[in-house]
Amino acid sequence: MADRHARLRISRCAAIALVALFALCGAANEIVLERVGNLTHPAIREASGIAKSRRFPGIYWVHNDSVNAATLFAVKRDGSLLQSFAVKVPNIDWEDVALDDAGHIYLGDIGNNDLRLPLRAIYRLDEPDPSEEEERLLEAGTASYYRFPAGGRFDAEGLFIDRGRAVVVAKYLDGRQAELFAVRLDPPAPLIRPALPEPLGHLAGCKEPVTGASLAPEGRRLAVCSYHVVRIYERNDVQKDEWKPRGFVGFDGGDEQIEAITWDGADLILAGESRGLFRIVAKQWQAQSGVDGPDRVPPGAP
Predict the structure, then answer these.
(1) d(C-alpha 39, C-alpha 271), whole Å
(2) Alpha-helix runs per DSSP H in the chain
(3) Domain-located, residue 76
(4) pTM of the full predicted structure?
(5) By CB atoms within 10 Å of each CB, which of 12, 107, 116, 260 scores lowest?
(6) How far apart are CA 24 and CA 126, in angstroms?
């Protein structure tokens, strides 16, 4: 009996040691985010989306989360404001912003906290010139509404434009892999006949709640972020929705809750709810390839 108790004590000690070792390995694989700027303008209270302009060098488009004015901000990478534009659409729960190659900005009113909303919307606007001296009201050229299948409502905070479609990334809190859904843009689905999103598949290994997404301009690399990790996916054929894991970076954001991401060449720029702007350089996400990533419990997860 004494030998059995001794063996149990040794087993418990070994298990504790293994847990500690895994924790240390996980911490070793994390990076400390490089702060490159701060969104200092008082009106940017809770950044929820960011996208680098494809028409105006050095410009990033940023917007607030819900319970804030419907405003689009043009900022530099250091966070300084260049211009702001009021938008003539409601901000029920704006969660991400994206661009295409035709000079359009897409605002994703795609948030659905507690799954209470039966409809969500994606607005398309003409990208304004951020060097305009006077603020002006931006009107949406189109509004594409989507509904959910019976029992299939989902929250989303990631949006990108791919082959004339809006793709939203479902945000799950129960450990399921992130899922992609396509919403048609042409013709836009009207409010009285909202579209049913088309399921495109899951992002392998991405079990964290996705808080932002960005498709690289060449269409082959997709980045998604969560509170403590960024994941990169690639595809060989830009005409297919076959995303394969390419790399990941676990990070310590301190008090920042990372809510948005955009490509900046091969680097990535992240925006936090507390106004910080951060950079992950290409060699950091390229250094860790595959599906596995940091096993972190994000805020809000069960």
Answers:
(1) 9
(2) 2-29, 282-286
(3) yes
(4) 0.87
(5) 116
(6) 48
CA–centroid distance for 293 within its chain: 17
3-state secondary structure at position 11:
helix
> Do 1 and 144 have their domain in common?
no
CB atoms within 10 A of CB 194: 18
- DSSP secondary structure code for residue 16 in this structure: H
- Which is more confidently placed, 7 or 103? 103
Amino acid found at 43? A
Say whether pLDDT at 150 is over 90. yes
Cross-strand partners of 167: 160, 182
Phi, psi (5° rounding) for residue 236?
-85, -35
Quick one: 8 and 104 in the same domain? no
Please give the single-letter amino acid code of residue 188. P
Q: How confident is the model at residue 61 (pLDDT cuts 50, 70, 90)?
A: very high
Of the CA atoms within 13 Å of residue 238, those in its CB half-sphere come to 12
* Sheet containing strand 34-38, strands side by side: 34-38, 276-280, 267-272, 258-264
Q: What is the DSSP letter of 114?
A: G
Whether residue 8 is predicted with pLDDT greater than 50 in this model: the reply is no
No. of H helices and E strands in the chain? Answer: 2, 21
Q: Taking all residues of the chain, what is their mean pLDDT, rounded to a whole number?
A: 88
Q: How many domains is the chain built from?
A: 2
Q: Give the CA distances from residue 169 to residues 4, 40, 84, 110, 132, in Å, rounded to whole numbers and listed in that order.
A: 51, 29, 27, 10, 33
Alpha helices in 1-110 (DSSP H): 2-29
Q: What angle do CA 298, 260, 116 make, to 5 degrees?
A: 65
What are the phi and psi torsion angles at 23 (to 5°)?
-65, -40
As given in the structure block, the two tokens for residue 297 are: 């419990």
Determine the structural domain holding residue 263 and report its residue range: 34-286
Residue 122's closest CA among 141, 101, 103?
141
Residue 122 has pLDDT above 50, yes or no: yes
